[in-house]
């Protein structure tokens, strides 16, 4: 592969990785809140979380641009701190993570909702505090959901196009990930080989990620229940 393609591959993996770094913890917190708590506005919060999944990606990118752009309210607050998300890899990770967020929240929430309330009550009767019940029960039981959600989120972040190009543009070496690079190559009369190479690499990475998740889910299932069958969250 050429140096240009290697640069695109590494940037795509970097953007997807950092997208997961913030999206998975946030998704876990939101999933736990929705699964285990009852409060006013719970259904509204659930609907808002799902919005990036149903809205056109370009609209999601515009929301980020108006909020986190140089003239946006959040962007202006962060500017004195030297933090900027406009037209850089950090912004690409923010956009990719936001679009992937609903796909990460859902399987984690399902895993948490599947926890038997009687187990929590038994631990409470045994004198275990809230944080102890969380580490002993909820977090281990949510691991299959975290793995499944993480893989779905990674795949979505890896292929994100609309929100990214709207928010941070298509800048080679800075924000040009797989989808944006393929889009650019398609506009060139001599870009067929690059389109083919990038497509093959992205497919290979996706297959490796899916196979890895299957293995990890099976290992977690064995550790949690002793059952060697894979549970799909």
Question: How would you characterize the overall build of this protein?
Answer:
This protein is mainly α. The chain has one domain: MetI-like (MetI-like fold). Helix content is about 75%, strand content about 0%. The protein has helices spanning about 5-35, 40-55, 55-70, 75-80, 90-115, 115-125, 130-160, 160-170, 180-185, 190-225. The radius of gyration is 20 Å and the shape is globular. The chain starts with a helix and ends in an 8-residue tail after the last helix.
Helix run count: 10
Overall spatial form: globular
CATH topology: MetI-like fold
Fourth-level CATH superfamily? MetI-like
- Number of DSSP strand runs: 0
